[in-house]
Amino acid sequence: MATASKEMIRGLTTAAVTASINPCPSPPPQRSTCSIRIRRQIVSPPLALSSRQRQFLRLISYSLLPLASSSTACSSEKVPNPLQVVCPLLRMEGLWTVSSIEKNKGLIEHLLQYGSLKSNKVAEVMETIDRGLFVPDGNPPYSDSPMPIGYNATISAPHMHATCLELLKDHLKPGMRALDVGSGSGCLTACFAMMVGPDGHAAGVEHIPELVAVSIENINRSAAAPLLDGGSLSLHVSDGRLGWPELAPYDAIHVGAAASEIPTALLDQLKPGGRMVIPVGNIFQDLKVVDKNLNGSITIQTNTSVRYVPLTSRAAQLQE
């Protein structure tokens, strides 16, 4: 372990020195991107990694985040793409963008260009629900980065919204039921409501009453307002770790904060044939895709490494 660690540190130090930031050629109007090139051959991790070695690699990876140019914005939820080269055994992805996108349509084009959006349905819904209505004033609403919304909460980066919607789209068909745990600004809950339609139901659960009040105001300014008025979209003040059993079972459950382990209450409220997307972990987090099979058994897959705020009690969140 010591020898491997020294070799990794030597290689990663060389990577940090030789990394360079280069603008992409011929950027589209109103947006630009950059990439960090790191010579692939300088890092040769062991073929078999123990749990401790894997954690060591991740810690080194996170330490390389400052390599980003100060003129770029990095999502704090998906780990940047250059680190996937540095530590190829860890699936770490991300988008690096400047905050020059000024309209929601431009953001959708950006997400399509970088592959976060894959289906026309999800792209249409994210374009219909204007993110700018859900980001507090003073923050760039269309930057592909998470933004603070107060009370130690954030609205997730657009590419994470796109990722979760793509993972859940087959469980967000008209007439289905969806639960958004940690609904925050209400943006993703509104997207769920647009997908399940007036014959379905999208419920958001948030334990900060002030955020619920703000999210209702946000949604009332959006294209999802008629669904809120019609009752197929609802927002509730409650501990999201307990779900919202009044409307269970759910075809789709999304959790917008990282749990140390998957809450049993949410598994119980997931419909057979349904799917839950939830970040799991403390320092090191992975986006888990949880499928409940028709016989009630559970299948869990890891989608990608992420970084979210913790799923915790209201008191603990407000004290952070």
SSE layout:
Elements: H1 2-18, E1 20-23, E2 34-37, H2 51-63, E3 73-74, H3 82-86, E4 96-97, H4 104-113, H5 120-128, E5 147-150, E6 153-155, H6 158-168, E7 177-181, H7 187-196, E8 201-206, H8 209-220, H9 225-230, E9 233-237, E10 250-255, H10 264-269, E11 270-281, E12 285-292, E13 298-306, H11 314-319
Parallel strand pairs: 7-8, 7-10, 8-9, 10-11
Antiparallel strand pairs: 1-2, 3-4, 5-6, 11-12, 12-13
Helix pairs in contact: 1-2
Total number of strands? 13
Please count the helical segments: 11
SSE order, one letter for each helix or strand: HEEHEHEHHEEHEHEHHEEHEEEH
Poorly predicted residue ranges? 12-49, 61-76, 80-98
Radius of gyration: 20 Å
What structural class do you assign from the helix and strand content?
alpha/beta
Can you give the mean pLDDT? 79
Strand content is: 15-25%
* Biggest sheet architecture: 7 strands, mixed
Helical content band: 25-40%
N-to-C terminal Cα separation, in Å?
35 Å
C-alpha geometry? globular
Strand order of the largest sheet: 9-8-7-10-11-12-13
Question: Short description, anyone?
Answer:
By secondary structure, the protein is of the alpha/beta class. Helices cover 33% and strands 22% of the residues.
Spell out the key features of this protein.
seven-stranded mixed β-sheet; single chain; about 325 residues; globular; alpha/beta; two-stranded antiparallel ribbon
